[in-house]
Amino acid sequence: MPRASAQPELFASGPRTLINDAEGGVRYWPHFIDDDLADRWFAILRESVEWQAQQRPMYDRIVDVPRLVAGYRLDDSVLEDSVLPAPLAEAAERLRGHLSAPFNSVGLNYYRDGNDSVAPHNDKLHGLAPGEPIALLSLGAPRRMAIRAKVPPARSVHIDLEPGSLLVMSHASQLHYLHGIAKTREPVGPRISLAYRVRPPSPH
After folding, report:
1. How much of the chain, in percent, has pLDDT values that exceed 90?
2. At 180, is the pLDDT very low, low, confident or very high (cuts 50, 70, 90)?
3. How far apart are alpha carbons 164 and 29 in whole angstroms?
4. Cis peptide before 15, with omega less than 30 degrees from 0?
5. What domains lie within the chain, and their CATH numbers?
6. In terms of DSSP bridges, do strands 134-140 and 118-121 run parallel, antiparallel, or are they unpaired?
7. pLDDT in tens, 51-68
8. DSSP three-state, residue 99
9. Geometric angle at alpha carbon 165, from 164 and 169, rounded to 5°
10. How far apart are the C-alpha atoms of 114 and 52, rounded to whole Å?
11. C-alpha–C-alpha distance, residues 189 and 199, integer Å
Protein backbone atom coordinates (compact mmCIF):
# COMPACT_ATOMS: atom_id res chain seq x y z
CA MET A 1 0.00 0.00 0.00
CA PRO A 2 1.29 3.54 -0.71
CA ARG A 3 2.84 5.27 2.28
CA ALA A 4 1.33 8.34 3.92
CA SER A 5 3.90 11.06 4.42
CA ALA A 6 4.61 12.02 8.01
CA GLN A 7 3.75 15.51 9.26
CA PRO A 8 2.63 17.11 5.98
CA GLU A 9 1.93 20.34 7.85
CA LEU A 10 5.67 21.04 7.99
CA PHE A 11 5.67 22.03 4.32
CA ALA A 12 5.13 25.76 3.84
CA SER A 13 4.56 25.90 0.08
CA GLY A 14 3.16 23.61 -2.59
CA PRO A 15 3.21 21.08 -3.77
CA ARG A 16 3.00 19.21 -0.50
CA THR A 17 3.16 15.45 -0.93
CA LEU A 18 0.62 13.93 1.45
CA ILE A 19 0.75 10.35 0.18
CA ASN A 20 3.35 8.68 -2.02
CA ASP A 21 2.69 6.14 -4.75
CA ALA A 22 4.00 5.27 -8.21
CA GLU A 23 1.43 7.52 -9.94
CA GLY A 24 2.17 10.68 -7.94
CA GLY A 25 0.13 9.92 -4.81
CA VAL A 26 -1.80 12.77 -3.23
CA ARG A 27 -0.36 16.27 -3.60
CA TYR A 28 -1.56 19.68 -2.45
CA TRP A 29 -0.93 23.17 -3.85
CA PRO A 30 -2.28 25.77 -1.37
CA HIS A 31 -2.31 28.70 -3.84
CA PHE A 32 -2.99 27.25 -7.28
CA ILE A 33 -5.05 30.34 -8.17
CA ASP A 34 -4.99 33.71 -6.43
CA ASP A 35 -7.62 34.87 -3.94
CA ASP A 36 -9.30 37.41 -6.23
CA LEU A 37 -9.80 34.88 -9.00
CA ALA A 38 -11.03 32.25 -6.53
CA ASP A 39 -13.58 34.73 -5.17
CA ARG A 40 -14.74 35.70 -8.67
CA TRP A 41 -15.14 32.10 -9.82
CA PHE A 42 -17.04 31.23 -6.62
CA ALA A 43 -19.51 34.10 -7.14
CA ILE A 44 -20.12 33.19 -10.78
CA LEU A 45 -20.61 29.49 -10.16
CA ARG A 46 -22.86 29.93 -7.15
CA GLU A 47 -25.28 31.97 -9.27
CA SER A 48 -24.95 30.36 -12.73
CA VAL A 49 -24.83 26.61 -12.00
CA GLU A 50 -28.12 24.68 -11.87
CA TRP A 51 -27.50 23.11 -8.46
CA GLN A 52 -29.38 19.90 -7.70
CA ALA A 53 -30.55 18.49 -4.39
CA GLN A 54 -30.24 14.70 -4.61
CA GLN A 55 -31.40 11.75 -2.54
CA ARG A 56 -29.91 8.30 -2.08
CA PRO A 57 -30.96 4.99 -0.51
CA MET A 58 -29.43 4.17 2.87
CA TYR A 59 -30.41 0.87 4.44
CA ASP A 60 -34.23 0.88 4.46
CA ARG A 61 -34.86 4.56 3.77
CA ILE A 62 -34.14 7.42 1.39
CA VAL A 63 -32.01 10.28 2.71
CA ASP A 64 -31.02 13.68 1.35
CA VAL A 65 -27.48 14.07 0.04
CA PRO A 66 -25.99 16.66 2.45
CA ARG A 67 -24.80 19.12 -0.22
CA LEU A 68 -25.86 20.41 -3.63
CA VAL A 69 -24.29 18.93 -6.75
CA ALA A 70 -23.86 19.51 -10.48
CA GLY A 71 -21.79 18.01 -13.26
CA TYR A 72 -20.61 18.72 -16.80
CA ARG A 73 -18.89 16.76 -19.54
CA LEU A 74 -16.20 18.82 -21.26
CA ASP A 75 -16.19 16.92 -24.57
CA ASP A 76 -16.82 19.23 -27.53
CA SER A 77 -19.60 17.02 -28.87
CA VAL A 78 -21.41 17.08 -25.53
CA LEU A 79 -21.03 20.81 -25.02
CA GLU A 80 -22.77 21.69 -28.30
CA ASP A 81 -26.17 21.50 -26.58
CA SER A 82 -25.20 22.92 -23.18
CA VAL A 83 -23.66 26.04 -21.74
CA LEU A 84 -20.48 25.57 -19.73
CA PRO A 85 -19.88 28.32 -17.14
CA ALA A 86 -16.70 30.17 -18.09
CA PRO A 87 -14.80 29.43 -14.85
CA LEU A 88 -15.12 25.68 -15.46
CA ALA A 89 -13.60 25.94 -18.93
CA GLU A 90 -10.79 28.22 -17.74
CA ALA A 91 -9.99 25.97 -14.79
CA ALA A 92 -9.94 22.92 -17.07
CA GLU A 93 -7.45 24.61 -19.39
CA ARG A 94 -5.16 25.51 -16.50
CA LEU A 95 -5.32 22.02 -15.02
CA ARG A 96 -4.65 20.29 -18.33
CA GLY A 97 -1.53 22.39 -18.76
CA HIS A 98 -0.40 21.95 -15.16
CA LEU A 99 -0.94 18.20 -14.92
CA SER A 100 -0.77 17.10 -18.59
CA ALA A 101 -4.05 15.21 -18.12
CA PRO A 102 -6.92 15.33 -20.69
CA PHE A 103 -9.68 16.21 -18.22
CA ASN A 104 -13.10 15.80 -19.86
CA SER A 105 -15.47 15.91 -16.89
CA VAL A 106 -16.07 18.10 -13.86
CA GLY A 107 -18.27 17.38 -10.85
CA LEU A 108 -19.27 20.23 -8.52
CA ASN A 109 -20.21 20.11 -4.85
CA TYR A 110 -21.71 23.08 -3.04
CA TYR A 111 -21.28 22.93 0.75
CA ARG A 112 -23.65 25.59 2.05
CA ASP A 113 -22.52 25.47 5.70
CA GLY A 114 -21.06 23.11 8.29
CA ASN A 115 -24.09 20.79 8.04
CA ASP A 116 -23.09 19.83 4.50
CA SER A 117 -20.54 17.05 4.09
CA VAL A 118 -19.35 14.09 2.05
CA ALA A 119 -18.85 10.69 3.67
CA PRO A 120 -15.49 8.90 3.43
CA HIS A 121 -15.28 7.25 0.02
CA ASN A 122 -13.06 6.53 -2.93
CA ASP A 123 -13.87 7.39 -6.53
CA LYS A 124 -15.45 4.55 -8.54
CA LEU A 125 -12.58 3.35 -10.70
CA HIS A 126 -14.76 1.84 -13.44
CA GLY A 127 -15.81 5.38 -14.37
CA LEU A 128 -12.24 6.72 -14.63
CA ALA A 129 -9.51 6.38 -17.24
CA PRO A 130 -6.72 4.21 -15.77
CA GLY A 131 -3.64 6.06 -14.62
CA GLU A 132 -5.17 9.54 -14.85
CA PRO A 133 -5.39 11.84 -11.78
CA ILE A 134 -8.36 13.43 -10.06
CA ALA A 135 -7.94 17.19 -9.51
CA LEU A 136 -9.91 18.99 -6.77
CA LEU A 137 -10.03 22.79 -6.96
CA SER A 138 -11.51 24.55 -3.90
CA LEU A 139 -13.40 27.86 -3.89
CA GLY A 140 -15.01 29.70 -0.98
CA ALA A 141 -14.52 28.93 2.70
CA PRO A 142 -11.89 26.38 3.82
CA ARG A 143 -13.04 22.91 4.82
CA ARG A 144 -11.01 20.08 6.32
CA MET A 145 -10.58 16.87 4.35
CA ALA A 146 -9.63 13.59 5.99
CA ILE A 147 -7.73 11.00 3.93
CA ARG A 148 -7.63 7.60 5.63
CA ALA A 149 -6.06 4.26 4.74
CA LYS A 150 -8.57 1.49 4.05
CA VAL A 151 -6.65 -1.22 5.91
CA PRO A 152 -4.75 -1.27 9.23
CA PRO A 153 -2.77 0.51 10.36
CA ALA A 154 -5.43 3.15 9.68
CA ARG A 155 -3.08 6.02 8.95
CA SER A 156 -4.78 9.31 8.17
CA VAL A 157 -3.91 12.75 6.85
CA HIS A 158 -5.98 15.89 7.50
CA ILE A 159 -5.69 18.91 5.25
CA ASP A 160 -7.55 22.24 5.28
CA LEU A 161 -8.59 22.86 1.68
CA GLU A 162 -8.08 26.59 1.29
CA PRO A 163 -9.76 28.81 -1.34
CA GLY A 164 -7.80 28.62 -4.58
CA SER A 165 -6.06 25.40 -3.52
CA LEU A 166 -5.58 22.28 -5.63
CA LEU A 167 -5.57 18.71 -4.33
CA VAL A 168 -4.50 16.04 -6.82
CA MET A 169 -5.16 12.35 -6.13
CA SER A 170 -3.70 9.59 -8.26
CA HIS A 171 -5.86 6.85 -9.73
CA ALA A 172 -3.89 4.34 -7.64
CA SER A 173 -4.59 6.18 -4.39
CA GLN A 174 -8.30 5.36 -4.77
CA LEU A 175 -7.49 1.70 -4.24
CA HIS A 176 -5.95 2.24 -0.82
CA TYR A 177 -7.41 5.44 0.68
CA LEU A 178 -10.78 7.00 1.48
CA HIS A 179 -11.36 10.75 1.50
CA GLY A 180 -14.20 12.79 2.97
CA ILE A 181 -15.31 16.07 4.51
CA ALA A 182 -17.12 15.75 7.84
CA LYS A 183 -19.86 17.96 9.22
CA THR A 184 -18.65 20.59 11.66
CA ARG A 185 -20.23 22.66 14.41
CA GLU A 186 -17.69 25.39 13.82
CA PRO A 187 -19.04 28.43 11.94
CA VAL A 188 -17.96 28.03 8.31
CA GLY A 189 -18.94 29.81 5.13
CA PRO A 190 -20.07 28.21 1.87
CA ARG A 191 -17.62 26.27 -0.30
CA ILE A 192 -17.65 24.99 -3.88
CA SER A 193 -15.37 22.18 -4.99
CA LEU A 194 -14.57 21.37 -8.63
CA ALA A 195 -13.53 17.75 -9.21
CA TYR A 196 -11.93 17.27 -12.62
CA ARG A 197 -11.64 13.73 -13.95
CA VAL A 198 -10.80 11.84 -17.13
CA ARG A 199 -13.84 9.75 -18.04
CA PRO A 200 -14.20 7.10 -20.75
CA PRO A 201 -15.62 8.54 -24.00
CA SER A 202 -19.33 9.38 -23.83
CA PRO A 203 -21.55 7.05 -25.90
CA HIS A 204 -23.75 10.01 -26.91
Report:
1. 77
2. very high
3. 9
4. yes
5. 14-197 (2.60.120.590)
6. unpaired
7. 999 766 766 777 778 999
8. helix
9. 145
10. 18
11. 31
